[in-house]
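WARN no homologs supplied; continuing
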Amino acid sequence: MIGWLNPAALWGLLLLAGPLAIHLLRIRQARRVRFPSLRFVASSRTADVRLRLPSDLALLLLRMGIVSAAVYAAAAPVLLTPSRVASWNARIARAVVLDTSDSMRAGVAVGRTAAETAEAEAREAGESIRIETPDLGDGLRRACGWLATARPARLEIVVISDFQQGAIADRDLSRVPAHVGLRLVQVGEPLAARRTPGMRLAGGPGIAPRTQELEVSGRGTRTTFVARAAEDAGGLRLVTAPGPGRDAAILLRTVATAGAPAPDGREPIVVRLGNVKHEPGIVPEAVRDPWMLRTLLRLRQDETLARLTREADTDARFEAGSPWVTVVDDGQGAPVMRAAAAGPELVVDVAASPDSLFAAAAVRAVLTARHGPFALPEFEPRRLSAAQLSAASRSPEGVERGAWRQAESSDARWFWTAALVLIGIEQYLRDRRLRATRKDFRAAA
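OK structure emitted
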């Protein structure tokens, strides 16, 4: 079997019409015949029209062979001989995916570390790449992408991780092609439990700020709340219009009771409630800071906030338009919550009275969106068993049929050599014909 790395070059075979046309249209030299006199030969008015063979058939075939060899060489042929396929199967291309998540940073108490294991696996492969990522699913996708461009060889992915429960999903493993080998190497020692500080919770009037302390074990998760000394680190400012039921302290206590994340003075937020027309010092501008954009994106994805917006009896509607960004609307395009930047602060307007349930839900949603999700997968002490890892592993298969498309070299050199040989023969024949013609001319003279 033969494959072509550049099959488009085969269109060059149309150039074979060039030598053929030249030989058909070539002016032939008439053969000189001695004749005593043409005086008594009557002239003819008819043309001599006959179908003739191309002149110099041997030269024509040589020139067409030169063009054909050059075209085949440009098409980069690959001869799939048994010896070549065997050499491809004798080597292996390996992608080593190294887990760099938080649970792997402590290293390994006994034996080689994960990084040392990855280096050893890479050295054993003929061609390899090392992918470091905290997301094993993303690492597998990147490994498959690299192997798809690797030189012909048996392909394998080695994943090195502590393999906590949920670290890798079946859908991630199913994306690996069937002919690619997969080996899951587990490092580290199992732990009975993991302890970690959790989320910092906001405080309010009569409610001290608190910090979660989490202990995750095989039996479940235990949460302990530790009260901190009351401190005003800033990060949240509530602005209300004057009037009855406009006490921001009550609203802040309600939000703290609900367990909202604590604000951060490095990412300050101003929440204006009700019909706050104007506040000195706040000049709205377009949102550009990354943390503000992340906060607004999470707010717009908050399904609970959207549902409460439809059910809430808000007392105002805002005007849409730059630089304000609509966070949620009333279903008819009128903003109920909008946001803009004001220097280092993110300003969020909420069209609700401070004593309403929707106002408390909106403030809590803003704090939660600024903090972002608090995930616990890295604190999971349970790990995948050796039987599960063995069941998901498999050996690499032989080189697949289409692997020749990634061959590092072709057999074009043989066709170039043939073209050069044919050029030499063609030159020799031309020189010999030219010498014979000159000899005839000298004899005729």
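DSSP finds twelve helices and 14 strands in the chain.
OK
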